[in-house]
Design goal:
The complex is a heterodimer. By secondary structure, chain A is mostly beta strands. Chain A is 1% helix and 39% strand. The longest helix of chain A is centred in the middle third of the chain and has 4 residues. The radius of gyration of chain A is 20 Å and the shape is globular. By secondary structure, chain B is of the alpha+beta class. Chain B contains 3 helices and 5 strands; from the N terminus they run E-H-E-H-E-E-H-E. In chain B, strand 3 and strand 4 form a beta hairpin. The chains are: A mainly beta, B alpha+beta.
Chain lengths: 395, 98
């Protein structure tokens, strides 16, 4: 019988939640990497037992972990315990945690500065990996979105990382600025129909697209309106929180911006607002039903100053029309005295029939719906604050 | 034999319990001790010193013999008691965060 594996990153470790296809009884494993912030855990579509995790700490820096057995055991790629510290070529191991901005004159871009919170310029400094996106086809290829914003790629299963410096070198870097969470590249969307095309999003620079496998990039922010920057319709500077795509229709994108829920029908060339009747159009997550490309989910958050759900009610909103008309989904979710947030990487959908929807909260709950959002139940209630949720549909 | 005491998160990462004991060739300094530590436990690279700049990470401190050595030059000799193994080099996470 098919099943699901939910990968949860929290402020104090990672958890793996598994169930059969009914999605009623859950096995909870963890905490893995106890005490560390796990910004993201994601499995390879090409090899579902291969998982990558971003383990990070303000004290100890960035660690990349990999599992090749579905999360039972983990190792830092390239440095298994007890192995020699250098490979046959004499090169040192222990490189899997090394994210070095490419500033070489041949392949890289000079490290410029970006805008700081107060509008002054500030040097680029690596802090952590926010998002890991494994290749759709090659289990050894994986992308990492980092703070300060840049995109890295590994072609050797996470052992070593190289920056795709055309993005940071786009030329608009001095206009990029950190959002409240830092200047992070948090979204990487791969186009299943075109391996040369991918989309990324940065808070607060906006969305970018490459059509040549990451060599060159262009901002795709036309149609966005952000009153919190000097020119509300500027080419860059927008605080995009999340982008989602349905794999059957990769030219249609949905976006949860700082404020505003947006849609593009032309791969980001132009966006239009589809916030419609949402109680507030601030939020972080957005996702698309696995089988219905016009069915979209968001979790409205009260405001940029009050990062919790409005009216003390945890409500997922679903549109079956690709935006504008939204319905509140509340069955099984707290509708009184609830003041949690749902962070940008903390929603996922499985591909079972019926489609399962999952999300995690800053209060440590992970909720699941096995019927596309009609009914919800907590898988776990008392984890550390949830940073990310991914789900794998297993055969 | 040099003794190094790691914070618990780094002990877990390196799969060690208790103090780490290291042989260090030549002068015993912060740099030579950390080089020896990272050579034996490569998974610790980047966790004590920045992976690129090799500077001490901001929220880590180096203590020994009741002294704070965090701001000593990396090539300055460590106290004789550390070099002889009588006292450990303590790598401590700053208390920030409580």
């Amino acid at each position: 019988m098919s099943g699901v594996r939910v990968l949860v990153g929290t402020r104090k470790g990672a958890f793996v939640l598994t169930a059969d296809g009914k999605r009623e009884r859950w096995d909870v494993s963890g905490p893995h990497f106890a005490g560390w912030e796990i910004y993201h855990v994601k499995g390879s579509p090409a090899d579902p037992n291969r998982l990558f995790a971003s383990q990070t700490s303000g004290w100890f820096g960035q660690i990349i972990q990999r599992s090749d057995d579905g999360g039972k055991t983990w190792t830092q790629p390239g440095t298994p315990p007890g192995e020699p510290t250098t490979g046959p070529d004499g090169m040192p191991k222990g490189e899997s945690n090394k994210f070095k901005y490419d500033s070489s004159s041949e392949t890289g871009k000079p490290l410029t500065t970006h805008q700081w919170y107060d509008g002054t310029q500030h040097p680029w400094e690596f802090k952590r990996v926010w998002h890991i996106e494994p290749s759709l086809t090659d289990p050894d290829t994986v992308y990492a979105g980092v703070e300060d914003a840049a995109l890295f790629r590994s072609k050797d299963g996470g052992k070593s990382w190289q920056e795709l410096s055309g993005l940071r070198g786009h030329g608009t870097g001095p206009k990029w600025q950190p959002g409240a969470g830092g200047m992070c590249l948090h979204t990487i969307v791969l186009d299943p129909s075109n391996p040369q095309r991918m989309f990324i999003a940065i808070s607060a620079a906006g969305a970018f697209r490459t059509d040549d496998g990451g060599k060159t990039w262009r901002p795709i922010n036309k149609g966005l309106n952000s009153p919190y920057i000097p020119d509300p319709t500027a080419e860059v500077g927008h605080c995009v929180h999340r982008i989602a795509m349905h794999r059957s229709r990769p030219g249609v994108l949905f976006m949860q911006k700082h404020w505003d829920v947006m849609r593009s029908n032309n791969a980001g060339d132009l966006w239009q607002e589809v916030s419609g009747n949402l109680p507030t159009d601030f939020g972080f997550v957005i996702d698309v039903h696995a089988h219905e490309p016009e069915t979209v989910y968001v979790v409205p958050i009260k405001s940029d100053g009050e990062h919790f759900v409005p009216d003390g009610k945890l409500r997922v909103y679903r549109s079956r029309s690709g935006g504008n008309e939204w319905e509140a989904l509340t069955k099984g979710l707290p509708q009184k005295d609830c003041y949690v947030n749902v962070l940008r990487d903390a929603m996922a959908v499985d591909s079972l029939d019926k489609c399962g929807i999952y999300f995690g909260t800053t209060g440590g709950q992970v909720y699941a719906s096995a019927d596309a959002g009609d009914n919800w139940a907590p898988i776990v209630r008392d984890l550390p604050a949830v940073l990310s949720v991914e789900v794998q549909t297993l055969p | 034999m040099i003794r190094v005491v790691l914070p618990s998160h780094l002990r877990a990462l390196a799969h060690v319990r208790g103090d780490v004991e290291l042989e260090v060739e030549g002068p015993v300094t912060q740099r030579t001790v950390l080089d020896a530590l990272e050579a034996r436990y490569p998974m610790l690279r980047g966790t004590i010193r920045d992976h690129v700049t090799q500077e001490r990470r901001a929220f880590l401190r180096f203590f020994a013999c009741a002294e704070d050595l965090s701001h000593e030059p990396p090539d300055a000799p460590l106290p004789d008691a550390v070099a002889s193994g009588a006292e450990p080099l303590l790598i401590i996470g700053a208390i920030a965060g409580g």
